[in-house]
Amino acid sequence: MPSLSPAVAEIRRAVRAALAALPEQPTTVIVALSGGADSLALAAATAFEARAAGIGVRSVTVDHGLQDASERVSAEAAAKASALGIEALVERVVVAESGEGPEADARAARYAALRRVAQAEDAPVLLGHTLDDQAETVLLGLSRGSGAGSLQGMAPVRIDDDGTTWIRPLLAVRRETTRAACAAEGLGPWDDPHNADPRYLRVRARERVLPVLEAELGPGIAEALARTAEQLREDAEAFDEMIHETIEDIVEHAEAGISVSAAALAANPAALRNRVIRLVVQSEFGVGLTRAQTVEVARLVTDWSGQGPIDLPGCTAARAGGRIVFAAR
């Protein structure tokens, strides 16, 4: 018998570990399948590992209708999944414009479709993001200066408030490995032309910025960026536990909102204080604050001189005696 390709073995191990780490074994898992090398290699490995574990597999290919051949590409991806023994679905969506750009709009439509299937099946969704995708995400976060939150990159497992579970088994796997796995298994991946279009910021980071960093600073940049994300996620998890313990003692419900003790905020380091402010607003009003907005609210604690309420997305913040009151607008 021919020996198993190292690339195929690596991806199967990654999928096996991801499935084993779930708190409860699902009856079915869903693979988000674009037809590209990453998702196709993931689908093949999932079909193999899930079959051994007695888990059903479905694939969902989202047809955004944004390219002339999108219907054909989606059908071909579904056919490849079916050949692997996977029950393949194609979800056609209408991409609504939000003003955030076509890439973000397509992503929103895609995740909404995957979420609908996941909830209907009560199944987690496996996504084919690789170490290279993680490195690009961290690099883009650095370029925006958007803080440690964005530098954590993509989590290996994320559970949304509605219970949808997203799993990324391949975050430690290089993109070249998924291509090698597809070649070894005779799977012909689709190359999305958008992945080579320099109009997209992520493409420029992939094709231009990361190769320059590798050439000038030496190999291993992608791995270093991915390690940074992992370390920051570990720190953030510990930090979040501290914050939740702190919030229980200093937060009270107020009319049309919530209030926080100014003295307690002042007693904490700036990093903790700012994080409490962001988490309170996110939890109560469902919006995220920018760095500038967070610092302005913190000034109600550290630099109070009678300034009036601060307008924030979805709410206002004001000093009322010894408390910072966040109220719905």
UniProtKB/TrEMBL annotation:
What's in the GO CC field?
cytoplasm
Q: Where is the signal peptide?
A: none
One MF term from GO for this chain? tRNA(Ile)-lysidine synthase activity
UniProt keywords (A-Z) are: ATP-binding, Coiled coil, Cytoplasm, Ligase, Nucleotide-binding, tRNA processing
Residue numbers binding ATP: 34-39
The record lists the catalysed reaction(s) as: cytidine(34) in tRNA(Ile2) + L-lysine + ATP = lysidine(34) in tRNA(Ile2) + AMP + diphosphate + H(+)
Superkingdom of origin organism: Bacteria
Major localization listed first in the record, in broad terms = cytoplasm
Residues covered by the tRNA(Ile)-lysidine/2-thiocytidine synthase N-terminal domain? 29-207
Q: InterPro entries from the entry?
A: Rossmann-like_a/b/a_fold (IPR014729), TilS/TtcA_N (IPR011063), tRNA_Ile_lys_synt (IPR012094), tRNA_Ile_lys_synt_N (IPR012795), tRNA_Ile_lys_synt_subst-bd (IPR015262)
Documented EC number(s): 6.3.4.19
Write down the HAMAP family for this protein, in alphabetical order.
tRNA_Ile_lys_synt
What role is this protein assigned?
Ligates lysine onto the cytidine present at position 34 of the AUA codon-specific tRNA(Ile) that contains the anticodon CAU, in an ATP-dependent manner. Cytidine is converted to lysidine, thus changing the amino acid specificity of the tRNA from methionine to isoleucine.
Please provide the record's free-text comment about the domains of this protein. Answer: The N-terminal region contains the highly conserved SGGXDS motif, predicted to be a P-loop motif involved in ATP binding.
Protein known as: tRNA(Ile)-lysidine synthase
Species annotation = Microbacterium azadirachtae
